[in-house]
Amino acid sequence: MTSALHHVTAIAGPARRNLDFYTGTLGLRLVKKTVNFDDPGTYHFYFGNQAGAPGTILTFFPWEHAAPGRPGPGETFETAFRVPEGALGFWMQRFIEKGVRHETPVTRFGDKVLAFQDPDGTRLALTAVAGIDGEPAWSDGGVPEEHAIRGFSGVTLLLSDAAPTAAILTDVFGFTSVGREGTLERYRADGAAMGGVVDLRASGDFPRGRPGAGSVHHIAFRAAGDAEQERMVRRLAEHHGIHTTEQKDRNYFRSVYFREPGGVLFEIATDDPGFAVDEPAETLGQSLKLPRFLEAQRPHIEAVLPAVA
Ligand code: ZN
Q: Residues 6 or more apart from 46 whose CB is under 8 A from it?
């Protein structure tokens, strides 16, 4: 069984700024506007392609007064999206026009990569990928379809010791090592178009990070359904002595969580049921959706959430 990234969840500052950047500047679709089920006074935004397919979803917990995080070993250092091969020029120009902090494109494992940051300092990148022009993309967000983001390429994890994390990636999620470049070791999920790359970056003796705005909270790997998730959970316990949380119902997927040996919080999320489970696919993200157990508190929740539109 081979997995791939399902979603990435990060911490942001002000909700409105977060929403504007991801839908406006990056042109992603807001596929769900809900709250943090464990902290319902906080939004949980999900951005993705038109369907919010697994492998395209970047989610945020925005806190109006979040202090900035500081990167360090044991966390996700960069999240990279895929764009069509010829699109980087368009994006460079867009970042200049919109004042987005970005770097000069570099070549990584043969791909052109444009690193940039969101307004909270979240480290992101666009990877130019050949042959993906025909993949569906959300183009109602102001980015023409020919240049639009096509889900994740993958993530880079910063680790003081990469080996134990690599063992989980290969043994539990079916990734294979495909090469090394400088301090990066690349793992790939065979056959996964989106979210199939995890780079492990050796940090050396770097002080531990501090979570905050701009930090990734956790990354989630895909399981087709409960049976596959259960097989991964068993493998983690039997081969690695790692025990996950019990399964939590996240409405749009069902999840278990565990801290991998390098310190990064991992989740295993099911592909089903997806974001159209509680609103029509055509109008995803337009109204505040709450899980059934929070519906009775809706007036109070709506009163404390910051206005975003
Ligand atoms: Zn998650």
A: 7, 30, 31, 32, 33, 34, 52, 57, 58, 59, 252, 275, 285
Per residue in 172-200, pLDDT (tens digit) is 999 999 999 999 999 999 989 899 999 99
pTM for the predicted model, two decimal places = 0.97
Q: How far is the CA of 280 from the centre of ligand 1 (A)?
A: 22
Binning the chain into helix, strand and coil, the percentages to the nearest 5 are 25, 35, 40
Find the 152 Cα to ligand 1 centroid distance in Å.
15
Q: 267 C-alpha vs ligand 1 centroid, how far in Å?
A: 6
CA 113 to centroid of ligand 1, rounded, Å: 26
Strands 216-223 and 265-270, how do they pair? parallel
Helix or strand (DSSP H, E) at 234: helix 226-240
Tokens 């993309």 sit on residue: 137
CA angle 219, 120, 97 (to 5 degrees): 115
CA of 245 to the centre of ligand 1 (A): 13
- Name the residue with tokens 């940090």: 203
Query: Ligand 1 centroid vs 8 CA: distance in angstroms?
Result: 7
CA of 86 to the centre of ligand 1 (A): 32
Give the residue extent of every domain in the chain: 5-304
Centre of ligand 1 to C-alpha 37, Å, is: 11
CA of 215 to the centre of ligand 1 (A): 14
What is 5-304's CATH topology?
2,3-Dihydroxybiphenyl 1,2-Dioxygenase; domain 1 (3.10.180)
Q: Please, which residues have CB within 8 angstroms of residue 202's CB and are 6 or more apart in sequence?
A: 159, 160, 162, 183, 185
Q: What is the pLDDT of residues 137-152, one digit of tens each?
A: 898 888 999 999 999 9
